Amino acid sequence: MKTPDLETVGAIVLVLAVLPFVAYAVPQAVGATNSYVVLSDSMSPEIRAGDVVIVDDVSSDSIGVGDVITYESADSDERITHRVVAVDASDGERRFETKGDANEEADPRPVPASAVIGVVQFHIPLIGHVISFASSDLGLLLFVVLPASALAISEVYSLYRDATGGGSTEPTETTPDSRQDHGGDD
């Protein structure tokens, strides 16, 4: 059996490293509608702070006990991801009682169906830390500014070298002389 060469292994590793970030940036590529970085450990050990949840918009009628949903908090613009522990449809609108797996008590207020963003389809461990770092000033500097600067400097240097003829690797013409052996008798 032929062993894969280093370039093939490198390409596979690169694709596998990039795929989770593609799923976060374009959740539609994996059949979902949204993605969020989890900021707390309220759902640990299953979902931890720094994980990314991939959320799909579903009908509130299809949400049941045991589903993990992401919803808009009534108190702020914050998004919360918790497990549904009870469903109430007594007054015509469905409401969901939720609880973080790591929390001892259920959330204080039921979540109206209108606040539900969707159901968590799956989560990707740890990449939220990288995404959060990349969103910081230092992350912007390391992931955007420095690589862009290095590329610009490299291009300017290449243009300068080409314009001045420096680094030319054109072959020079040689003529036979007495130092070359032509295989004949002298």
Automatic annotation (TrEMBL):
Keywords: Hydrolase, Membrane, Transmembrane, Transmembrane helix. Residues 176-186 have a biased composition (Basic and acidic residues). Residues 163-186 are annotated as: Disordered. This is Signal peptidase I. GO terms for molecular function: signal peptidase activity. CDD domains: S26_SPase_I. GO terms for cellular component: membrane. NCBIfam families: sigpep_I_arch. It comes from Halolamina litorea. The keyword Nucleus does not apply. SUPFAM superfamilies: LexA/Signal peptidase. It is found in: Membrane. InterPro entries: LexA/Signal_pep-like_sf, Peptidase_S26, Peptidase_S26B. Its EC number is 3.4.21.89. Its main location: membrane.
